[in-house]
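I had to read the description of the data format several times before I understood it. Each protein is reduced to its one-letter sequence and a matching series of backbone shape codes. The format is easy to grasp once an entry is in front of the reader. For illustration, here is how one protein appears when written out as sequence plus structure tokens:
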Amino acid sequence: MEQHMVQLEKRIRDHLENLGFEIYPLKVGWYNAVLPPAFHLPYLNNTLAYVVLSVPAMFDKAFKPFLWNHPLRKIHDPVDQCISYHLSLVRESLADQRVDIMYDYEMLSNRKPRFLAQTAAHVAGAAYYYQRKDVLQDPWGEKKIYGVCIHPSYGGWFAIRALVVFPDVQVPFLPQSPPFDCVTTQEERIELLNKFNFHWQDWSYRDIIEVKEKYSEEQKTYFATPPAERLKLLNLQGLQQNRIH
């Protein structure tokens, strides 16, 4: 079974890694163990899954080529369509496997997300999920404080896109690697959570650590622009206007 996982992982990486994606394996049991039952995934504890991240290179390597070559569905976000397209290719390449794909934007009928993306990234060792409980002397009182994942190479310049589950693949041998704790001091953690919760629009929380790459100016402008205006921003409106259906 270990060799089977190696082969599966290679097939996924062959599709995604040159397009600005990263994948990290996990057992479903690691995820379920840190969450209340209402959020558990309905698989055996040793079930293999992969969390899929996009890093800054995805914009040029996957997203822009996707825009040029594929019709858009007006009701869906173009980036979500791009991610779905590339993961559908992964699914097709693994036709001999049962594959469940959950996207970060999908909600259940009870309005809960299909999976908690930041928790999945943390237990898979992909990015450290900094939360209020990671601050020893809490300065926020009654305020609601949301946590945020920080990637050891990209800081906040990345996104958690999907969870790919293989219900028939059991990996009891898989060792768990903890995420790299890159925001180590209490002062930095407070600064990070303050910036993320109260100043997220200025992007500054993403630079809480030194990063090897961040979003290009074009990419930052794209994500800061209202969705209805984004295609025009990329000078693709003329190309796409007859394709939207």
